[in-house]
Structures are given as C-alpha cells and as structure tokens.
Automatic annotation (TrEMBL):
Annotated InterPro entries: C2_dom, C2_domain_sf, SWEET_rpt
Chain ranges passing through the membrane: 29-52, 64-82, 94-112, 119-140, 146-172, 207-228
Organism: Trichinella pseudospiralis (Parasitic roundworm)
Protein name per the record: Synaptotagmin-3
Keyword terms, alphabetized: Membrane, Transmembrane, Transmembrane helix
Domain of life: Eukaryota
Gene from which this protein is expressed: Syt3
One of the record's GO cellular component terms: exocytic vesicle
Pfam family, one: MtN3_slv
GO biological process: calcium-ion regulated exocytosis
Domain C2, chain residue ranges per copy: 234-356
Entries under PROSITE patterns matching the protein: C2 (PS50004)
Record-linked SUPFAM superfamilies: C2 domain (Calcium/lipid-binding domain, CaLB) (SSF49562)
Gene3D superfamilies the record matches: 1.20.1280.290, C2 domain
Length: 377
C-alpha cells in the first residue's frame, strides 16, 4: 500500500507504536553502556565546575587544598592522550571534556586564590611536565607510547585508589564513616563499574586494571556506608554582633559563642576558631579568632575590626563571610565546619535582616544568631 494513501494520523500512530522496538533493535548493550558512561561523566564534570560557584560565593579558594584538582587534571589529560594513541574516540571525548572542565576549575582556583605563589608553581611544573611528555611521545614509536602512557595512567589511578584503603581501615576501627561524603563515592563507583565493563568489551588492559582496582576499593568504601550508616548532623549555631561606625569607617564583628558544633568523625570534638572575611568592591580582608581546644560549644567573646568604605554603594557591594573552622581537620577537602554570609542580598533571611538593621542603626551593635550552613551548598 502506498504510504500516501494512509492518513497522517494513522502514520503517526504506527510510528510511535513501532519506535521503541525499532530503537531497541538498532541499539545494543555497548551503545547503551557508552551512552550511560557519557552521561555520568557529563555530570561529573558539572560537579567539578560547581566548585567555582562556591569560591565566588566565598570570594576565595584558599580553604581548599589544590592537590586533588591538580591530580584530577593530570588524570583526565593523560587518559585523553591515551585515547588519541589508541585511536579510541570515546576515550578521547569523555576525558577531553573532563580535561576542559578541570582546566576551567584550575583557572578559577588560581583567580580566587589569595596566596597564589605555591599554586602557580605547581601549575607551571605540571604544564611543563605535560608538554615534555607530549614532546617525548612524538619521538617514540606508537606502540611504545601506548604502553608508556597506559602504564602512567594505570599507576596513577591505582595509587589514588590505594589512598582509600586508609579510610577503610579508619572506618572499620572507629565503626563510623561520616568523615567521607557519600554522593561522590556512589557516583564514582557507578562510573568505575561501567568503565570496567567497557574496558572488558574493548579488551583494553590498562583501562581494565586501573578502573577494576579503583572500582573494587571504592566499592568497599561504598559498602561501609551500609554497614556503618550515619545520620546527618546539624552544623551548629553561631551568636554574633555587628556594629558599623560610619564616622570612624569601622566595622566591628563581635563573636560571642557557638552552640552544638558537630564532632568530626575520627577526630572527635573540634578545635574551633572563626575566620571572618570581608569582601568589599573586590577587595578581601580576613581575620580570625583564637583557637579553642576540644569543644563543641566554644565561647569566644572576641571582636575583630575592619576599615571599610561607608558609601551607600560600597556597602551594597559588601559581604561578610563568617566561617567556623576546625584546626584538627585536614585542609583537604576542607577544614570549614560551616559558615554564614552577611550581606544585603544574603540568602538566609536572618543574615540579611541583621545586615539591614546594622545599616539602619549605625553605631549600635546588632546581635543575632544564625544556623551554620554547609560551605559547599
């Protein structure tokens, strides 16, 4: 029958009825696996880029240790090179995307860094090493280059995976795992599982050995979350007062106390201190209180002062980031317990209200208390 004799409505009904079956006939497991890996890698790149929003919100990136970001870039770059050497466009595409995302993150990490010297040196050395490797590869036979880059990638990824063994030992010893965030562990396990299947499918030894070992160790960490489940904890509540003395161009922040700080996994009660960062017209000033030892309810009663511009427009472009830190925590991923941001456009209603009242009552101390928020949000 000529298709033109069939009414359009019936043609559409036939198309939509047969479309799923037709699609499944043309798709195989390998295509679905590659698509799934691509989607997961896409969201992994977005997760990396989300750090930029956090740094912009804080006005700096110094609270984050830079080494994981450097290693992430090196790993994605090396696997991209490996993809080119073995002429595998899937490996090139996903790792090229991650390399681009990690490059943007590194640039932002540097821009928002107050102390740039160490980071600049590491980035320079990393770039020099990457360039030297590419130059070396041009002088080697392709098969030698494949084995060289594949070996470096595998050793590096396995080395990173082995660092998780320390976390596993600590979790078993303490019977808790609340010092490791669950979402990244679950996401990475999912990706590694799929990439391991992919490496078996294409019979790539280096992909298989590196991702297989990483998946196994990460899977053990993933399993521990079900053996040692942990309830989400509140981050505490900070009590503070702020005073704007317009005639003296001085902003005073009085840190009174903090209630109910959480214990930090294996480290127990924190050694808290408060870091106050003033951002005004793209200029950053930072001061901090003394450190109190081994307490979840520190009482500071300390005041810090900043010289500020008191023009109406200047104050509109001013924000105050009050971060509660733990001297016990490693700087990676972060030593920040929680924070509040005071400004005219603060997201938290209580923070915006305290700031508004301060502007309306110069010379008067405005006291308030705020629930600490996760700095990654």
């Amino acid at each position: 029958m000529n298709s033109t004799s069939v009414p359009l409505k019936e043609q559409l009904q036939i198309f939509y009825k047969d479309f799923p079956k037709s699609l499944l006939r043309h798709l195989n497991f390998f295509d679905l696996l590659c698509t799934s890996i691509g989607i997961n890698i896409f969201f992994l790149g977005l997760a990396a880029l989300s750090n930029i929003r956090r740094w912009k919100k804080r006005g700096k990136s110094d609270q984050d240790f830079f080494l994981p970001f450097i290693l992430a870039w090196i790993g994605s770059f090396l696997w991209t090179v490996y993809g080119f050497l073995v002429t595998n466009w899937q490996i090139e595409l996903v790792n090229g995307y991650l390399t681009a995302a990690n490059s943007v993150v590194l640039i932002a990490l540097y821009i928002y860094r107050i102390r740039k010297k160490s980071l600049a040196a590491v980035i320079f050395i990393t770039g020099l090493a990457a360039g030297s490797l590419l130059l070396l590869l041009t002088q080697l036979p392709n098969i030698t280059s494949v084995h060289l880059v594949g070996s470096i990638c595998s050793c590096m990824q396995i080395g990173c995976a082995c660092t998780m063994l320390y976390m596993i030992v600590l979790a078993i010893k303490k019977k808790r795992i609340d010092f490791i965030p669950f979402p990244p562990v679950a996401q990475i396990f999912n990706i590694e599982f799929q990439v391991t299947l992919y490496s078996i499918w294409i019979e790539d030894f280096y992909l298989l050995i590196s991702n297989g070992i990483f998946m196994t160790i990460d899977g053990l960490v993933f399993l521990l979350f079900f053996i040692y489940p942990s309830e989400p904890t509140k981050l505490g509540r900070i009590h503070l007062g702020i005073t704007l003395e317009a005639s003296a161009r001085r902003l005073t922040i009085n840190i009174a106390k903090i209630d109910d700080l959480p214990k930090y996994g294996i480290y127990g009660p924190p050694d808290p201190y408060v870091r106050i960062t003033l951002n005004q017209n793209q200029v950053t000033q930072s001061k901090q209180t003394r450190t109190l030892k081994n307490t979840c309810n520190p009482v500071f009663r300390e005041a810090v002062m900043f010289l500020v511009s008191v023009g109406e427009e200047d104050l509109e472009n001013t924000s105050l980031v009050v971060s509660v830190m733990d001297a016990l925590r490693p700087s990676c991923p972060s030593s920040v317990i929680g924070e509040v941001i005071l400004s005219k456009s603060a997201e938290e209603k209580s923070c915006a209200e305290q700031w508004r009242m301060m502007l309306a009552s110069p010379g008067k101390e405005i006291k308030a208390s705020h629930t600490l928020e996760n700095p990654s949000e």
